[in-house]
Amino acid sequence: MLACLLLAQLLVAFIGRSVGPLGVLIGEDLELSKSQIGMLPAALFLGQALASIPVGFVVDQTGSKTLLLLISLCVGSSFILMTFSHHFGFVLLLVVIGGLGYGAMHPVTNRGIIHWFQQTQRGFAMGIKQTGITTGSALAGLVLLPLSAMYGWRHVVAAACLLLIIGGVVSFTLYHDSIKETAKQKNESRSSFLHSMQHMMKNKPLMLVSISAMGLSGSQLCLVTYIVIYCYEYLHISLFLSGVLLVLSEVCGSIGRIVWGVISDRLFKGKRVIILMMISGIAGISSMTLAFLPPFTAFEVMIPVTMVFGFAISGFNAIWMNVASEVVDTRFSGLSSGFSITLGSLGVITLPPLFGFIVDYFGSFTAGWIMIVGVMILVFGLLLLLLKEMKTKMAY
Question: Whole-model pTM above 0.85?
Fold first, then answer.
């Protein structure tokens, strides 16, 4: 079951996240400005924000199996249609539609993890599943980009979409929902959408972890967006080696998603808020280090700093998904993760532009990295409140 969930998550990310690395080629083809190219990944995350809550509600009612196929068809079909379009507005609309499927896959697969694994196993299982996102994104850059440069992005993306649809059929065929949870679901009365949303908004632990995720998600994208520019323009490291540092941070983030999950399962018996506090502390220290590095700092010095920063800030996602799903009754696990993803997406949309504005205003990356330190202090405080709340309500 975990392999089916991982396959679906990886292939959807492989297509959805391709708009980043392929942006240059799409921009050349459609004669786009830099700001228009930047709107492509923004459109993807807009679709994610729009889909996460309603799909989270639906998956709690129907289970994950059928939705794995429908989401694969949604993403695959929209991106295939995109390869036939020469109008930027229509391409943008199709990316938003693909983003609906990209965002929908998170609550659908998260629910599968929550229903198939016990609490002391979910950290590792969720970590494995979440690596599908970073792996799919990395493969888009490593496979789709060079192939698109050789054969054209339209042909390559269309072929990759067919692979996604085939993968969706495979996942749908092999996967089935937990029999125990399905039986339990049938015996329970179904809640209306408004009643379920009221339940989410009144859940203080869910609100606290979701607001914390705004800061963590936004800071993660700040690192991914600006580390190359920082190393190239401020530290005067070559563009190639600056790109290597970005890859190292992403690889360490993938490793972190598994390792943090294992630590939370084995050492903390499924108590994951403490792990998020550790992650925010490490990320804050890493960002403070970047803030005060002198110009012309050597590439070798940046390697451990970037690896540790990526391990923490890009490795928190699986722990976040677990907490968001575990602070509610299991029958609301899909909606709770969708609700939390929607709030977390606000950080992805707002923090990177704010980071860039601060850097431009002060004329220094130091101010931007100190902003991230401030965000991590705020997140740490919110998680401390969450820890006290869970100890009070759940004997955490």
Answer: no
